[in-house]
Amino acid sequence: MTEYGPETYGERVADVYDTWYGDLGDAGAEVAVLAELAAGGRALELGIGTGRVALPLAARGVEVHGIDASAAMVERLRAKPGGGAIPVTIGDMTEVGVEGPFRLVFVVFNTFFMLPSQEAQVRCMANVASVLEPGGRFLLHAFVPDVSRFRDDQELTVRSVGVDEVRLDASRYDPHLQRVDSTQIRITEAGTRLVHTRLRFAYPPELDLMARLAGLEPESRWGSFRREPFTADSAFHVTVYRKPA
Ligand SMILES: C[S@@+](CC[C@H](N)C(=O)[O-])C[C@H]1O[C@@H](n2cnc3c(N)ncnc32)[C@H](O)[C@@H]1O
């Protein structure tokens, strides 16, 4: 079986990423919040991918930088109008090996959970704090874990059934590591497409603790980029941490 590393997801999904996820979510509201937090300063996206968010943010005049482990994802970004002008470092976001300071560092669409262990996540937060300018913000957007969907630590979901395609998600859950290994399976007459994701999830209080360890203060938590209140029913959260001035 192929080893799974920081670059594996991107290398496997790059050619279809924009078709599958290009119009995902509420990009207008997302970019508006990020532009406001960047407040005329430099911004850094962890796991910038094909530029789904970074490109419209740069189009609003924000100086956006990026880091990503997958050269194939970044190649897609660079091929788009404006993509060549965004400085991107190929590397592991655990280390945040980019020269600061930044007024805003952000990681969206569950990408923080792609760091495979608590240790890597703690290290990433500390490195984020070190490249933030005083008063700068770290925005993290991710799902709120819901382990009730697993039975016997596994789940098989039928996403769609059609004449030309069947989509399944097969997942295994490790409660001790808080890790979910999922393979998206798309079956067509031409063949089967597999995209594997390994996520180490964390509940919001654990993320807050990691932030505190890094010297960041929790500032806001919303249920969406439209700044809806975060409640016990929220499936996602948008959290902003601040480096003290
Ligand atoms: C779900 S995609 C999100 C891309 C983009 N931020 C967006 O919202 O569309 C996750 C991205 O993170 C990258 N990635 C995953 N693990 C990484 C790591 N350890 N270091 C840097 N990039 C990573 C992947 O290559 C991929 O481009």
Structure characterization notes:
The protein is α/β, with parallel strands linked by helices. The protein has 2 domains: 8-145 and 202-242, Rossmann fold (3-Layer(aba) Sandwich); 147-198, N-terminal domain of TfIIb. The chain has helices spanning 8-21, 27-38, 54-59, 71-78, 118-131, 204-213, and strands at 42-46, 63-68, 88-90, 102-107, 132-143, 154-161, 166-174, 179-188, 191-200, 217-222, 236-242. The strands form 2 sheets. It has a 7-stranded mixed sheet with strand order 3-2-1-4-5-11-10. It has a 4-stranded antiparallel sheet with strand order 6-7-8-9. A hairpin with a 4-residue loop joins strand 6 (154-161) and strand 7 (166-174). Helix 1 packs parallel to helix 4. The longest helix is centred in the first third of the chain and has 14 residues, at 8-21. The protein starts with 7 loop residues before the first helix and ends with a strand. The model has no long low-confidence stretch (mean pLDDT 96). It binds S-adenosylmethionine (SAM). The site of S-adenosylmethionine has 21 residues, from helix 1 and strand 2.
